[in-house]
Amino acid sequence: MIEVQHLTFGYGHGAPVFQDFSWSAARGEAWAVLGPSGCGKSTLLNILAGLVKPGSGAVRVDGQNLNRPRPQTGLIIQDYGLLPWATVRENARLGLRVRNYYGPDGVHAPKDYTRTMDVEPWLKRLGLLPQAAQFPGQLSGGQRQRTAIARTLALRPDLLLMDEPFSSLDAPTREGLQRLVLELWHETGLTLVTVTHAIEEAAVLGQHILLLNLPPNTHPQIIENPDILQPGYRESDEYVALCRSLRAKLEIA
Amino acid sequence: MKRRDLLLATLALLFIWQIAAMLVNQPILPTPIQVGAAFIEEMNEGLAGHFLASLWRVIASTLLSILLAAPAGLALGQSKRANDFFAPLIYILYPIPKVVFVPIVLLFLGIGDFPKIVIIFLILFFQILVLVRDQAAGLRPELIRSVRSLGAGRMALFRFVYLPASIPGILTALRQSVGTAVAVLYIAELFATQKGLGYYIYLNGNTLFNYPAMYAGVVAMSLLGLGLYFAVDWLERKLCPWLFVS
Questions:
Q1: Which residue numbers in chain A have pLDDT < 70?
Q2: ipTM of the complex
Q3: How many CA atoms lie within 13 A of A226 on its CB side?
Q4: Which of B151, B165, B241 sits opposite A98 (nearest CB)?
Q5: Residues of chain B contacting residue A69, judged by C-beta atoms under 8 Å apart
Q6: pTM attached to this predicted model
Q7: Across-strand partners of A2?
Q8: Which of the four CATH numbers 3.40.50.720, 3.40.50.300, 3.40.309.10, 3.10.150.10 does domain A1-72+159-167+177-253 have?
Q9: Is B153 in Cβ contact with A135 (below 8 Å)?
Q10: Could you tell me the CATH number of the domain that includes residue B83?
Q11: Percent of chain A with pLDDT over 70
């Protein structure tokens, strides 16, 4: 699904963030990208989202070279990115409105896209029907992020990128949304990439964890974490041991 | 603002006016009742026509300024380079009191509606331009990034983000400048016209010495200003309901 080959990327004249970096992810996998601030994890996500052009090397998603945002890729960011003047329902429809605006041109919307404005199933699935007529300013952080998720999933993405999605939420809300995202990932079969600086979040959302260090990143460190869907995983010894090992690796870095 | 409070405030003002008229006790300050009667009478005698002429000038110049200033503000707000280029010019022109251009505009554009419309346009244009520009420039990059990730290119960003984001700026600009616009309209209508409330007030006050009629004109001009202010309020509630939720 994702192929990064010999990527070299840097900002301005500083040291490159990635140097001859290669990594790949298969369709339907759940990846967490973990690393300290400034390690380049958000840069990697922006490149995968098509919002930043890779310097040299090749980045392909679903076999296509990335030059611009790909219509089948969804992005969830920390501060939600909701329109303050639109209700929850209108915000959830925004992606569809953008697609309807351009039509199925293969650039802004997939070629096989059929026009729709129906987001009700997603509002229902995400428990947002009671808030559907409210504005973002009237919502809690968790409800805002669920609105952003509904908006993205209404576009039926095959790749969902999340950039520190739950960092500004309180612990119970964060855990609830992490569970929800895992359920949705399992239900829809999409490929999930979550960028986070939180070790616990990486251990909960990453079937595979890509560990980045301070730049330049030259080769991927990958930690396998196959049990994320097991019931009670968050309380298991494996989870605790994984968090401990990730913490140690980050401290060495 | 509650309607009851507005009504009470109006009654209080009328009461103060009545007392002042009784104390002054001269033709230059008629009572509200005399002015009310003159207002009704004058409305049938041609005041309505003057009112409509002034209203038309304000509405036309408002629409013209929105039509030209909002897109320009959006363009400057989206492009740092364009804004860097034009910002010094706007910085110099923005604080100049546009009323001083009245004689110049009249000299160049002569008689008729157009010079009056241009004068009000000059006031509203800069106000809308600056507020819309700042509103567009103040949109968080994160918001733009996330809407771009939904597939939005330049056109869709404009349609779904920048355009709706500019509406509160336009309305704030109108609210701030509608009073000034009506005041300057009054000045502009003193010259080279025989239509409009400014002309009507001046004619009755300084030539015909018909003070109740002059006051009726003042009331009409106040109603024009108030009406425009209320209209902006109403539009804001209609177009920006999100600003009024708790």
A1: 253
A2: 0.85
A3: 0
A4: B151
A5: 148-149, 151
A6: 0.84
A7: A25, A61
A8: 3.40.50.300
A9: no
A10: 1.10.3720.10
A11: 100
